[in-house]
């Protein structure tokens, strides 16, 4: 089931033609309308007219979150203020906030892409969809809202909080689809269970969550639904950049609107399919705040194989982490989140662990320290040796390099506030 | 008849054995026998003490991870051939000894073999048929 069959199943050649046409237009548009990009392009010595092939994109400079912060609030705007019809803002947890502005056409394009997303997840005009999102400032609520209205579903903008009422609404209005943060979906199921309500008996059948695999499974079991992963970020528009189809083998990126590159976060070099790296997007159709080669800091990889759903848009694997956390060990990119994912599959392993990277005889060594509690040690070392073997095997298959699991006494790993302290790199200095 | 063995997880670094024994000493717990399994970066200290559950409690309070498991205390004469007799009785019956350690009781001319076996019940049957005595926790302490 497609929302826009023509756009979603466009032939590769035709898609590339469209992308090139749009790329040349948007770079030219940026050059003419954005003071920021004009000086950035001049600095890089690139003139819009020089873009002849899609590969020439690599000649353009990157745009970063820092650029957005430094140009807060309106420095990135490429249209007169009067053309702006909406402004979303991200919280400024690390310094200045950032804003995203939309023209009338931007809002319409966004709704169109969200309609594709929702259709991908099986939502139709016959559905009633409950949107349990914070609508204030953030892009999640209104993004889904406009998309669901465009699809023709009945939309319930239920906002966040008041779990009792959320449940009542879900049950009484025979809600068939919902979207929320994954942690809230799990919380709500738990909240219902405690009150003797089985959400599995509701009319729900589908949901969209940006969830990790293990969380998704729990959500699906609790609600008796099929859950779809989606990807987006407010700088590009909000949700609506990529979504899973029924095959659930990666997320289709709507690449007629967002041109995707995967780069090595260290060197900035463009990587090929199957290579893990940072996602970089160029908005092909945005008017108010177009972005050229925007570095997302999100790590994934390109899956460049035909998908059984018939959509021709390239897929990305589910997110693997953030480039800020990346470690390069023996030339392989390793993300602490990958280690965490493996450990999460072993519920007996305590939440306290530490990743230590060291150099032994000029070789990088990756060690994962795990605290020994009574859940993994009941008196016999065989239990520990077996666990060590299983963990090391699993880590090796996920990371692609050998990791050594070391057991330490409880309480010896420093309790940290941030994830960053979970990683100790002794190679430096 | 089984006795309880206290097993303490320790990192393989200087001072751990001294810390464990010091904690037990200060708590007035007497160690009858001890063995250390070394497994690379960590080890397990195995102890036969007079008050195993108290030992576990004080060690846990000091931040150690402690297991208590069941082992056999097998009486042997302090003379040549007695260990071989026990080992072959168990071996013939298909009981595997995972590990064992022994100590000689002062002045009583006998020794005790502490053994962890894979089938406690079968081991008990075999040894009693052979006329080999197993010691209870109380007997162990009175040695």
Can you walk through the features of this model?
The complex is a heterodimer of chains A (429) and B (143). Chain A has eleven helices and 22 strands. With 429 residues, chain A is an alpha/beta fold. Chain A has two domains: 323 residues, Rossmann fold (3-Layer(aba) Sandwich), CATH 3.40.50.12780; 100 residues, GMP Synthetase, Chain A, domain 3. Chain A has a five-stranded parallel sheet with strand order 4-3-5-6-7, with helices on both faces. In chain A, α5 packs across α6 and α8 packs parallel to α9. Chain A is globular. The relative contact order of chain A is 0.10. With 143 residues, chain B is of the alpha+beta class. Chain B folds into two domains: 67 residues, VC0802-like (2-Layer Sandwich), CATH 3.30.2130; 73 residues, VC0802-like, CATH 3.30.2130.10. Chain B has a six-stranded antiparallel sheet with strand order 2-3-1-4-6-5. The longest helix of chain B is centred in the first third of the chain and has 11 residues. The radius of gyration of chain B is 16 Å and the shape is globular. The relative contact order of chain B is 0.21. Chains A and B meet through α11 and β21 of A and β1 and β4 of B.
């Amino acid at each position: 089931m497609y929302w826009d069959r023509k756009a979603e199943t466009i032939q590769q050649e035709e898609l590339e033609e469209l992308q090139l046409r749009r790329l040349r237009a948007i770079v030219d548009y940026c050059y003419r309308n954005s003071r920021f990009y004009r000086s950035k392009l001049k600095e890089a010595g690139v003139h819009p007219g020089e873009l002849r092939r899609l590969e020439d994109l690599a000649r353009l400079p990157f745009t970063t979150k820092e650029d957005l912060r430094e140009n807060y609030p309106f420095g990135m705007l490429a249209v007169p203020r009067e053309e702006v019809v909406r402004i979303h803002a991200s919280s400024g947890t690390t310094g200045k906030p950032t804003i995203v502005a939309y023209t009338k056409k931007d809002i319409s394009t966004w709704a169109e892409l969200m309609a594709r997303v929702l259709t991908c997840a099986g939502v139709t005009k016959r559905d009633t969809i409950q949107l349990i999102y914070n609508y204030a400032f953030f892009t999640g609520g209104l993004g889904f809202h406009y998309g669901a209205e465009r699809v023709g579903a009945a939309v319930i903008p239920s906002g966040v909080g008041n779990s009792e009422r959320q449940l009542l609404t879900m049950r009484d209005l025979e809600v068939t689809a919902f979207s929320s943060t994954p942690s809230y979906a799990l919380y709500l199921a738990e909240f219902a269970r405690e009150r003797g309500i089985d959400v599995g008996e509701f009319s729900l059948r589908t949901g969209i969550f940006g969830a990790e695999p293990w969380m998704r499974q729990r959500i699906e079991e609790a609600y008796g639904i099929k859950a779809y992963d989606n990807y987006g970020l407010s700088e590009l528009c909000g949700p609506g950049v990529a979504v899973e189809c029924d095959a659930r083998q990666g997320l289709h990126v709507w690449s007629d609107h967002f041109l995707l590159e995967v780069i090595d976060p260290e060197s900035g070099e463009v990587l090929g399919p199957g290579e893990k790296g940072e996602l970089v997007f160029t908005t092909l159709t945005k008017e108010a705040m177009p972005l050229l080669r925007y570095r997302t800091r999100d790590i994934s990889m390109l899956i460049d194989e035909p998908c059984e759903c018939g959509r021709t848009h390239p897929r990305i694997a589910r997110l693997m982490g953030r480039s800020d956390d990346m470690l390069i060990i023996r030339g392989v990119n390793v993300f602490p989140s990958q280690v965490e994912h493996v450990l999460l599959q072993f519920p007996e392993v305590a939440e306290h662990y530490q990743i230590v990277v060291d150099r032994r005889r000029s070789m990088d060594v990756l060690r994962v320290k795990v605290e020994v509690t009574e859940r993994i040690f009941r008196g016999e070392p065989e239990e520990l040796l077996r666990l060590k073997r299983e963990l090391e095997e699993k880590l090796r298959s996920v990371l692609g390099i050998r990791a050594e699991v070391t057991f330490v006494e409880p309480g010896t790993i420093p309790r940290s506030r941030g994830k960053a302290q979970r990683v100790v790199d002794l190679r430096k200095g | 008849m089984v006795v309880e063995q206290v097993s303490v997880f320790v990192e393989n670094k200087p001072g751990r054995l001294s810390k464990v024994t010091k904690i037990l000493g200060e708590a007035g717990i007497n160690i009858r026998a001890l063995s250390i399994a070394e497994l690379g970066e960590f080890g397990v200290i195995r102890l036969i003490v007079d008050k195993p559950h108290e030992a576990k409690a004080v060690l846990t309070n000091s931040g150690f991870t402690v297991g208590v498991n069941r082992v056999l205390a097998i009486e042997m004469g302090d003379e040549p051939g007695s260990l071989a007799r026990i080992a072959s009785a168990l071996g013939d019956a298909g009981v595997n000894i995972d590990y064992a350690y022994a100590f000689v009781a002062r002045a009583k001319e006998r020794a005790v073999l502490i053994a962890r076996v894979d089938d406690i019940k079968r081991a008990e049957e075999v040894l009693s048929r052979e006329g080999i005595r197993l010691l209870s926790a109380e007997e162990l302490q009175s040695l």
